[in-house]
Write a structure and sequence with these properties.
Elements lengths: L2 H15 L9 E8 L6 H5 L12 H12 L4 E11 L2 E10 L3 E10 L2 E10 L8 E9 L2 E9 L7 E18 L2 E19 L4 E16 L13 E18 L2 E16 L5 E15 L3 E12 L9 E3 L13 E3 L1 E15 L3 E15 L14 E13 L5 E9 L5 E7 L4
Parallel strand pairs: 1-3
Antiparallel strand pairs: 2-3, 4-5, 5-6, 6-7, 7-8, 8-9, 9-10, 10-11, 11-12, 12-13, 13-14, 14-17, 15-16, 17-18, 18-19, 19-20, 20-21
Length: 418
């Protein structure tokens, strides 16, 4: 029996333990929520299946409780069953998490420093809607504003909208050495999200953006072939989220498929990117959590030095450095074993051992690029997590990665790496 099934069985046993005197023949008189201050009860009711008048079902209640915990806005959900004659009152006793927090993060490798500051809310109006607003310095100044809502009214539709100014310095590796280019991107994006089930959704997005590369120093062979200017972005995202959250432990499977189509408005040139993000989590005993991620991607194979898939410490390979290489295809595997050092009332510490591996197809290259050793990177290392339990995924992350060529780097951030 796999771990998610075991968790549901344990939840059912817990419900049965609290429901002595309650039988399957009894009907549910009322379904109530307590402990809510900001979260709207009407929003939570969209995620449960039990209702008044139905027969009592302990398995159904256990699934509903887990579904509420998976929203990431409730720290605890306890079930209380109160028999009343031939019926039973079902009460979901909730404790809300702190959902509005400042954003502050920083990171450093051997050759770069970055920091981020802003604010985030995971439950802005009490309906699970999210707001992210932050400033980032990563060689240059960037700004990011995003709003997303899981449910519009009582429908199965959601929406997202974002405004972005993204500015970085992009190193370009060539035979003559490393040349630095400034990259600037202004983006406006919006999407409609259709929830097919509690676990699956489809996201249809459309955006416009302007991007530009400029050499910091005049090059002998200027890269005039780089497409710049105004572009139209179309995006289709399919998500299948079968993750279950048990405080800071995660179990289950998650998969996200992205298909992006970019059309240049200044000249007829199109670009397609397809990538898939698969994650698998399993809990062992009381202290171990095994986390895995497989990212695969392929894009239009233009001989463009600024290809979409980037090799970088903060994105895929811990310790490798700052935007070390690019490609039109990538395969990345991340695996880590998290061990709980201590678990106190509001703080948790974890030790982490990890291994990251990636392979890239060079711009204009061939499929066999994935098998060439010069296109592969493998780093292993140790890390530390300090987790604040009263807010979702709020933790300090420190990782030190090292490879067989004696390259190494320290990566610091906020939130789990994946």
């Amino acid at each position: 029996m796999d771990r998610p099934c075991i968790i549901i069985v344990l939840q059912v046993v817990l419900v049965l333990g609290m429901s002595r005197g309650v039988t399957a023949q009894q009907s549910i008189a009322t379904v109530e929520f307590t402990g809510l201050s900001k979260t709207k009860e009407s929003f939570l009711r969209q995620y449960i299946t039990v209702s008044s008048g139905e027969k009592y079902d302990s398995i159904q209640l256990a699934h509903d409780r887990q579904r509420l915990l998976n929203l990431g806005i409730l720290g605890e959900v306890a079930l209380k069953l109160i028999p009343a004659g031939g019926t039973v009152r079902v009460i979901f006793a909730c404790r809300e998490m702190i959902n509005t927090l400042p954003v502050f993060a920083l990171g450093k490798t051997n050759d770069t420093f970055w920091c981020k500051a802003g604010i985030q809310s995971l439950n802005l109006t009490g309906r699970g809607d999210k707001l992210f607003a932050y400033y980032q310095y990563y060689d240059r100044h960037s700004f990011y504003l995003n709003y997303a809502t899981d449910r519009m009214g009582y429908s199965k539709w959601g929406a997202t909208a974002s405004l972005i100014q993204w500015a970085t310095v992009e190193p370009l590796n060539s035979e003559g050495g490393i040349s630095n280019y400034t990259y600037t991107n202004y983006t406006g994006y919006a999407s409609a999200v259709r929830f097919l089930t509690f676990r699956e959704s489809v996201d249809f997005g459309l955006g416009v953006f302007n991007e530009r590369f400029e050499a910091q120093q005049m090059q002998e062979n200027e890269l005039d072939e780089i497409v710049q200017g105004n572009k139209l972005l179309s995006k289709l995202i399919f998500k299948s989220n079968h993750l279950n959250y048990h405080t800071f432990y995660v179990t289950g499977i998650y998969n996200q498929l992205n298909i992006e189509f970019i059309h240049s408005l200044d000249e007829v040139r199109n670009f397609v990117t397809v990538f898939n993000d698969f994650r698998y989590f399993k809990q062992f005993g009381k202290r171990f959590n095994w986390a895995n991620r497989l990212r695969t991607g392929i894009a239009t194979n233009d001989d463009n030095p600024f290809a979409p898939f980037v090799l970088d410490s903060y994105l895929n390979i811990r310790g490798v450095g700052n935007r070390v290489d690019r490609g039109t295809g990538s395969v990345v595997i991340n695996t880590e074993l998290r061990y709980t050092l201590f678990d106190k009332r509001i703080l948790v510490a974890q030790g982490v051992g990890f291994f990251d591996f990636g392979s890239w197809r060079k711009p204009g290259g061939h499929i066999d690029d994935f098998t060439k050793s010069e296109n592969m990177r493998a780093f292993s290392g140790l890390g530390f997590r300090l987790i604040y339990k009263r807010a979702f995924d709020t933790l300090l992350r420190i990782d030190y990665g090292y490879d067989y060529n004696k390259n190494a780097g320290l990566v610091i951030g906020i939130g789990q790496y994946f």
